[in-house]
Inverse folding.
């Protein structure tokens, strides 16, 4: 575990062009792709002003502007470009005619330590944030609680939760794990400090089921799952588990699934194929961990119960940044409040829960089955084609998931977690 004290702030800007001809559509973020009343026309070099005016008069066009490079093109106005484009293209002297389009600036978050977040780049979050930021989705973090007073939670949305350890309505974190997991899901973003979260506009429901030592009983966890399901959570993140099965725990998972919740669970950090619960249950979405190089993290469980993989990091400095390629988020530890690199399937699970929140926000009507299927269908296949016991369906790709168009004949995906 390592704390960052200072890094250089890096902000990246780039343009994403959204040009198309003769189509009415929006970009993935729902913004208009075409200027509704503008056409770009390039004339052949022989065309004189009289011929240009003939075309303007014939189609009721008004000239808006010439190109900066003389003779390159002109911008014209018309109330309905699609009604005339096909004919305009065929006019003598017209080299091309197309409806003008919009381009949008995509801004990498200005959070000061973003340059250390290889994991966000790996799952294509900079592009994904242009599509969804999680608004309207509710994610229950069933863990050690959340320290909501952390500076980088100032703009994070919270909804009421519960503490099943101390039996009160203040699920405060006294260990640090739950706050770190929450950060990956919904750390305040574009606030010039710290780090971003995947679904930073979602609402977090903190549910404390683990104590200050990071342990809890199955009854506490089962109660926490039922509480979240009954109080409106769409996504449940359980970055926890044990090696013993439990009917009470399985019943709670099944209950939440039946109520429409997606239950995202850490696959476990034992480098083993042995079942880890609740991840091993059929209604759980079991998440294994990958490292900077898209390899299975050495500690990550694998085998028939793993459904999907996501960045969990490891202790190596693969890119030479001077820090381990763990998962950096705000929490607290022995050095106080700060930003810490942690590794594990706990961190991997949080990535999937955040992506699930983005998908739920993008289309509130999506079911838990549909969200799970989209994440699986768009994952980067890292092992044997299709599902395999090392990576499940592969490593998540947030932008691909958010821009996915399901096939007309959906593929039925049987959950791998069947123990």
């Amino acid at each position: 575990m390592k704390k960052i004290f200072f890094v250089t702030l890096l902000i990246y800007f780039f343009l994403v062009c959204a040009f198309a001809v003769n189509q009415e559509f929006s970009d993935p973020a729902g913004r208009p792709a075409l200027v509704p009343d503008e056409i770009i026309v390039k004339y052949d070099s022989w065309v004189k002003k009289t011929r240009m005016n003939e075309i303007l008069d014939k189609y009721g066009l008004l000239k808006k502007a010439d190109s900066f490079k003389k003779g390159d093109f002109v911008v014209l106005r018309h109330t309905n470009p699609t009604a005339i484009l096909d004919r305009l293209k065929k006019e003598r002297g017209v080299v091309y005619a197309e409806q003008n389009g919009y381009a949008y600036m995509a801004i990498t978050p200005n959070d000061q330590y973003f340059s250390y977040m290889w994991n966000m780049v790996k799952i294509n979050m900079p592009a994904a944030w242009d599509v969804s930021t999680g608004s309207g989705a509710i994610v229950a973090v069933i863990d050690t609680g959340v320290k909501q007073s952390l500076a980088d939670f100032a703009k994070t949305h919270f909804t009421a939760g519960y503490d099943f350890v101390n039996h009160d309505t203040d699920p405060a974190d006294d260990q640090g794990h739950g706050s770190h997991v929450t950060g990956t899901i919904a750390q305040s973003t574009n606030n010039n400090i710290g780090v971003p979260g995947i679904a930073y506009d979602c609402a977090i429901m903190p549910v404390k089921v683990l104590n200050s030592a990071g342990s809890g009983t199955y009854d506490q966890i089962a109660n926490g799952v039922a509480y979240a399901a009954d109080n409106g959570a769409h996504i449940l993140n359980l970055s926890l588990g044990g090696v013993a099965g439990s009917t009470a725990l399985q019943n709670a998972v099944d209950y939440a699934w039946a109520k429409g919740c997606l239950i995202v669970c850490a696959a476990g950090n034992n480098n083993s194929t042995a079942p880890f619960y609740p991840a091993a249950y059929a209604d759980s979405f079991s998440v294994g961990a990958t490292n900077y190089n898209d390899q299975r993290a050495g500690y990550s469980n694998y085998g028939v119960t793993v459904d999907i993989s996501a960045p969990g990091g490891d202790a190596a400095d693969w890119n030479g940044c001077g820090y381990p390629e763990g998962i950096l988020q705000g929490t607290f530890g022995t050095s106080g409040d700060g930003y810490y690199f942690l590794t594990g399937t706990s961190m991997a699970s949080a990535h999937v829960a955040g992506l699930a929140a983005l998908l739920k926000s993008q289309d509130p009507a999506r079911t838990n089955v549909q969200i799970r299927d989209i994440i699986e269908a768009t994952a980067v296949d890292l092992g044997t084609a299709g599902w395999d016991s090392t990576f499940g369906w592969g490593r998540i790709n947030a932008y691909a998931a958010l821009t996915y168009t399901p096939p007309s004949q959906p593929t039925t995906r049987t959950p791998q977690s069947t123990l």
Q: What stands out?
A: The two ends are 33 Å apart (CA to CA). Confidence is low (pLDDT under 50) at residues 1-26. The chain has two domains: 34-101, 110-402. The chain is about 25% helix and 20% strand.
